[in-house]
Specification:
The complex is a heterodimer of chains A (336) and B (504).
Chain A: H1 2-23, H2 25-31, E1 39-43, H3 50-66, E2 70-74, H4 81-88, E3 96-101, H5 102-113, E4 122-131, E5 133-138, H6 146-155, E6 161-164, H7 169-181, E7 189-192, H8 196-204, E8 210-214, E9 225-230, H9 245-252, E10 262-269, H10 270-275, H11 277-292, H12 294-302, H13 311-328, H14 330-334
Parallel strand pairs in A: 1-2, 1-3, 6-7, 6-8
Antiparallel strand pairs in A: 3-10, 4-10, 5-8, 5-9
Helix pairs in contact in A: 3-11, 3-12, 5-13
Chain B: H1 4-15, H2 19-22, H3 24-36, H4 42-53, H5 58-75, H6 77-83, H7 92-103, H8 107-142, H9 145-159, H10 167-181, E1 184-185, E2 191-192, H11 206-221, H12 239-248, H13 253-268, H14 274-288, H15 300-324, H16 330-341, H17 348-353, H18 355-383, H19 391-410, H20 414-431, H21 436-460, H22 471-503
Helix pairs in contact in B: 1-18, 3-4, 3-5, 3-18, 4-5, 4-16, 5-15, 5-16, 5-18, 6-7, 6-8, 7-8, 7-15, 8-12, 8-13, 8-15, 8-18, 9-14, 9-21, 9-22, 10-21, 11-19, 11-20, 11-21, 13-14, 13-15, 14-15, 19-20
Classes of the chains: A alpha/beta (336), B mainly alpha (504).
Chain lengths: 336, 504
Amino acid sequence: MTLRRNAVSRRTLLAAAGGAALAAPATLRAQGAYPERPLTILVPFATGGYNDRYARAIAPFLQKHFGQPVVVQNRPGGSTMLGNMFYLQQPDDGYMVMVHSAGPFIPLSILTRNAQYKADDFWMINLPSRDSTLLACATNKPFNTVEEVIAQLKRDPRSISVGVQPASADLVNLALLMQGHGIDRSRMRIVTYDGGGPARTATMGGHVDVGFVGGEGFLPVKDRIRPLLAFADEKVDGFEETPLITDHAKAAGFADEFVDGSQRGFVVSKKFRDAAPERYRIMAQAIERATKDPECVTTLKGQQLATTWYGPEASNQAYLRSASLMEKYSDLLKQA
Amino acid sequence: MIDLDAAGSAVALLAGSLDAWIWVIPGLLIGLVFGAMPGISVSMAMALVLPATLYMEFLPAIIFLTSVYTGAGFGGSVPAVLMNIPGTSSAVATTFDGYPMARAGKHNEALGLALVASCLGVLGSYIVLFVLVQPLAELVLRIGPFEMAAIAIWGMILLGSLGGKSLSRGLFAAGIGILIGTVGMNTAGYLRGTANIPELLDGVPTIPAMVGLLAASQLFGLVNTHFLVESEEDRQISLRRIIAGGMMTFRHPVTLIRGSMIGALVGAAPGVGSSISNLLSYAEARRASKDRDSFGKGNPEGVIASESANSSSEGGSMATMLALGIPGGGATAILLAAFAMHNVVGGPRFMDQNRDIVYAIILSNFAQAVLLLFVGTGFVFCASAIVRLPLRFLIPCVLVMATMGSFAIEGSIAGPATLFVFAVLGWLMSSAGYPVAAVVVGLLLGRLIETEMLRAWQLAGGDPAEVLNHPAAIGIILLMCLSLGVSAWQERRRRRAKDLIGVG
């Protein structure tokens, strides 16, 4: 609670300071030698994950367009909650930016871990990478289509074991699918895994009959699984043949609501954007130029990293849409 | 199973490239140093050098990282033997017998044993990998929650009463360890015992807790001693005795092979790895031994069992990573990241299309195991100088190092705070005669048992009869009962024989 109150009071303070700065733009420009120090990319995950790789791959290009050295710092723990709290406590001087799977991790930490910040305390600059939940089974399982799985679950919800991460976007998608088909989730055999990796191994190894887990991690082992349904509204890279939830829902006659598995990219705090709009503009511009840099596009593509520039508007819209959907279905998240 | 053409071009690949070799020894040294620092785990050592590999070619980068992996795997054992502080969580069981050996003046031998057992473990597991990479990976993929739970329970039963004179105190200590291990979010997403401290969401940080428990209980106990090794003439550092210790490894081939098998298999199981395999191997060696009581008091077999298992886990986890593209633990996750940084997607397809590179990685690891023998001997020789350091200097140094290491893990005060709390707990428990090692075992194995049992229960939908569909798990449990029964029977017969002699 203390933390929260501090944050608010500081925000008011900074807003006032920002207002003063706007009133006297000349003064700001006089001291505004921004950027004059190295920029830190804060990754709230351990070394080696997608966000870490993305941050390290784009860092040299960001350095070129930002005009200052760029360093990557990892601060994992509590499913990004520790990193988020740390970031919000930093000064709004524009020398730290996050590379984050903002959706679903920020809303999830609020809904399932009582994090004391709000989803819109964060501001997305660009979220180029989107991962979608995939319903998949091992190749030796007897299911060829999602309809077969649903039909069997309708006959007997206990007949199929399902692997999923608790408190995840995948679980919301699972819940929405079952709700759409009128299948009683509490009677199903749901097996929980603390991470996408273990859930994927269990699906691939056939420990569970089907799994709901982010599709991207399946790419290297595509031959060993049978993708049945993708929770996306357009074709998923690498799983172009897989039926989409939007079509499936339309055919079955229920609302085609789903949440994105992961939305990753550059994130800052809203109070930084509000308090130092000029610095924010410089930072966002550097990120945009780095993202569009042809050399950067080639390098990132080679490492299977996303490079699209969607911009703050589209990115925030996508992030907030997924956050509010998750909030709407937060009761589904609480019962694994 | 061995593709000879690919093996041939792997040899050519290695022979024709100086780059593939110059990084091996620096890698081993970096691994040894970081591994030996309490608090820095194998995967952290690799994470530290990962950014540097971005600027290397693919093969040298992977070889460099696996050298760090190999080096760190052994590095953790040096402080485990000399100071009862496992440098990494994979060296916990090494402390059980390694440290008593050092206190008895056999530090040279203990380190030699650990080194040779480690080198042979690495070598053995990579030989398995070379011949059986695909079958091993397939086997591991079949280990589901039922089987894993059975294995973990086996380990827990064998280790439950570890090191204690009284069974009830041992069980009590193990129970405390298990309870502490349940703090945090469990696999079903329930928060327990976090007391609103966000740092506890992932559970009590294992490494600082472990270092606190093991180190503090020892160091406080040493306050009135002047040197680690009491007798003056034993306090020497002797290359001859290190080598003699190394040769002792060959006198226990069964322990060595069993340890390597357990290590390769358990290390290959995703999410389990070397911090569990060394405990299981130790437990098995102790159960199978005729002289069970000498374990925990400086039995060389205990060191061999632990070290062969923790180092052979490397080959095991490489098998799952190469054949399936699954990171079994932190270290292989870093390797996969390094793959990705070089535009290579690890996994079955990579292995099918680049068999020569896979073989080159394996062959280079053979060479690493041999080189570790030499680099490691040098390292051990220098490191064992600390037995000559008076304890009034050594103890503060160790405490500062341990605090720094625990800070390095997360870069926050949570690590040192945990270290302090558990140091007090460890000291209180050991002064009251409770075995702290059992707390550590509970901490490490408890979480695994809970997670796997919960998944097994969810999978069964609450129906206990489901276990009948998992013959492997039943097999493990039956084997466990059988081996426990045999041990109990042997014990009884031996005691009766002893009584008869006593009477006669």
